[in-house]
Amino acid sequence: MIVLVFIVCINGFFNSNEMLKGFINIFVFVFILLLALFCLIYVKYKKR
């Protein structure tokens, strides 16, 4: 949740730079995807 607020602040600060804003959005998407994948692997490993 704190990370989300931090990202929103960055997006607001670099609002004039569209390319950087797009890069941040891609980075956030990849980070969420990796986090979800890690959670899935952890749950599968814990069930064994």
From TrEMBL:
Q: Which UniProt keywords apply?
A: Membrane, Plasmid, Transmembrane, Transmembrane helix
Q: Where are the transmembrane segments?
A: 23-43
**Organism annotation:** Staphylococcus aureus
Protein name per its UniProtKB record? Uncharacterized protein
